[in-house]
Amino acid sequence: MSAALRTHNRWLALVVLALTQLVVVLDGTIVNIALPEAQLELGLTDGERGWVVTAYALAFGALLLLGGRIADYWGRKRAYMLGMIGFGLASVWGGLAQNGFELILARGLQGAFAALLAPAALALLTVTFPSGRERNTAFAVFGAIAGAGAAVGMVLGGVLTEFADWRWCLLVNVFFVIVGVIGGALFLDESRAEGDNRYDVLGAVTVTLGLGSLVYGFSLAEGGWGQPTTIGFLALGAGLLVLFVYVEMKVAQPLLPLRIVADRIRAGAFLIQLLAGSVMIGALLYLTFHLQIVLGLSPLAAGLASLPLPFAITLVAPIVTKLLPKVGPRPLLIGGPLVVAASMLFLSGITADGTYVAQVLPGLILLGIGMGFVFVPLQNVALAGVAPHDAGAASATANSAMQIGGSIGLSVFTAIYVAAVPSGGNPLVGFTTGYSATFVAAAVGMVIASIVAATLLRGGRARLRLQATGAPIPHLG
Prior knowledge:
With 477 residues, the protein is mostly helical.
């Protein structure tokens, strides 16, 4: 194959992988706008309504590390194709669900197959663009889609709910899957980890149950942080995760080689990803509720009202891509979260009698600008310097941080919302009081993300530039 044809195929592979990232991320939010109609048709309780979102993010985040290792050992293209097909079948089941239990279970299966699909796609991107300027561009595209995908999901969900039916928010995935399977078969090359590849079964069990218990414990906090069940599941989750770390230190072929997270810069990127995920998945749900319940927008209007967010990310992404090699990722990942925090504080000023233009639109634009500065460099930094043998595991860790952050964020924000809503009085005033409290909490989280960047992303501008461009790094640790 000629060099020109290989380069052409690499960019077509990027299109396929970027599409995969879009469908995985937007499925975390596409049902948000459809939830009110789905709740009425299927008779969901408020708790079940929340689990339609949480089931996807929880299964996705809890199984990502296992999915990453399966991709490394079994073959990344093979895992990608199986993940795509399974994701499509689960989407069809959810779209045809006749009750809340079926819908929640289908969403969990979507998350499970996404946990196989997402790390395979990101690992394929890593080995397809190993270094240099092309890698920088590829990861900028991938990161921008990761940041915009949640908002795109809200828009698409609004259009489908308004003009078709809420069920099409799930059935639409079939079209993405068909394109992904055909494109994957044509343009993706198989790769896998070399050497002795044995699955870490004990590690898989402890991390899956640990993350699941932790997220479930946070979800129970809605009824009170001091309840025995809340404390019990949080403690169980923390204990299992400690056990997981111990197992990873002892086994020959760990599910998550601790060398991946031992590097200070990479660990900082994972923490920032966790906090950013809490905002993009958790806080955006309450913004959706405000648009529809308080402002009275239709699903379509609510979806269109969220368009400034992906537009702002798209406009900022090329600017950040040019800045990244010049200034390195550290200034961007310090300033970006502060802009996001400012947007959350602005949105916390919403009132029951306010307007979209005055109280929501400026905050959405600020949020898009901030997230553009966060997501474009973030995954590149998180995966720079990772050995090919660990590409799937590192990709899974990056994705897992985002999804677990979203799951925990949604649970924590729900608990804060319930605690903040006053009893009695005008219900719309009560709703906005609760929404405001969640936005303030999100702002605090993003300030912490900025502090993490300032503290952990240190080590010299030259090294950080290497992290951002994917050039060889002499020492990581």
